[in-house]
């Protein structure tokens, strides 16, 4: 069973990314499906969503691989190519990386997607604009703020809101930047926000659609 806690360790930055990728790649040889995502927060979010939907990805032999940034997509698709058609592929990327993923799929002959719909037919979905924005929009600012409060982060968020660069900005934009201002916070809330979204049946479409496809 996927456990987000195993990924949200004391390691940070590149060390955490390398460790998470290595752990995932160790399972690829016996996998039936591999989902390629940009980073660890996407891995945690997708795995948490699966658990929330009653899925056991380990038992289903579905592996979520964080590739360390969108520009690595071609390298990972090439690495998986020898496993052939027995392996189902899918993935998740941010809007600004959509073209990078599309080119990677084309160059490695996975497909020749020209539109986002074409990408989805290949099992690859796009977050608008990114995972954090999708989750904030799915829950609404009031629910996200309530979650900050429940986690003891509301005072820190209020302090962040008072900073000159962010004072008076839309709450959703403030929340997005607050989450991304700390890698550990971002990883922790990837799980918490998805759990809340599953509980309210408002899981963002890219996560929901990818899980359904696989």
**Helix/strand order, N-terminal first:** HEHEHEHHEHHHHHH
Main beta sheet: 4 strands, parallel
The CATH top-level class label of the largest domain: Alpha Beta
User: How much of the residues is beta strand, in percent?
Assistant: 5-15%
Into which percent range does the helicity of residues fall? 40-55%
Structure keywords:
single chain, 214 residues, alpha/beta, Rossmann fold, 2 domains, 11 helices, 4 strands, 10% strand, globular
Give your account of this protein's structure:
The chain has 214 residues and is α/β, with parallel strands linked by helices. Helix content is 53%, strand content 10%. It contains 11 helices and 4 strands, in the order αβαβαβααβαααααα. Helix 2 (40-52) links the parallel strand 1 and strand 2. The chain has a 4-stranded parallel β-sheet with strand order 2-1-3-4. The model is unreliable at 4-11 (pLDDT under 50). It folds into 2 domains: 4-132 and 203-213, 3-Layer(aba) Sandwich (Rossmann fold), CATH 3.40.50; 139-199. The longest helix is centred in the last third of the chain and has 17 residues, at 183-199.
């Amino acid at each position: 069973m996927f456990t987000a806690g195993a990924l949200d360790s004391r390691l940070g930055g590149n060390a955490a990314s390398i460790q998470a990728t290595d752990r995932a790649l160790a399972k690829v040889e016996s996998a039936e499906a591999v989902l390629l995502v940009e980073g660890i927060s996407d891995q945690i979010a997708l795995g948490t969503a699966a658990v929330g939907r009653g899925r056991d990805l380990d038992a289903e032999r579905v592996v979520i691989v964080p590739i360390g940034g969108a520009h690595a997509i071609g390298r990972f698709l090439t690495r998986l190519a020898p496993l052939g058609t027995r392996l189902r592929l899918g993935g998740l990327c941010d809007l600004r990386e959509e073209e990078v993923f599309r080119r990677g799929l084309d160059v490695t002959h996975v497909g020749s997607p020209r539109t986002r719909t074409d990408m989805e037919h290949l099992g690859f979905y796009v977050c608008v604009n990114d995972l954090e924005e999708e989750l904030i929009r799915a829950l609404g600012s009031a629910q996200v703020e309530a979650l900050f409060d429940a986690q003891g982060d509301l005072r820190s968020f209020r302090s962040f809101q008072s900073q000159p660069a962010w004072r008076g900005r839309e709450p959703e934009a403030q929340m997005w930047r607050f989450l991304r201002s700390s890698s550990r916070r971002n990883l922790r809330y990837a799980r918490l926000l998805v759990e809340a979204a599953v509980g309210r049946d408002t899981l963002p479409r890219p996560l929901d659609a990818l899980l359904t496809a696989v």
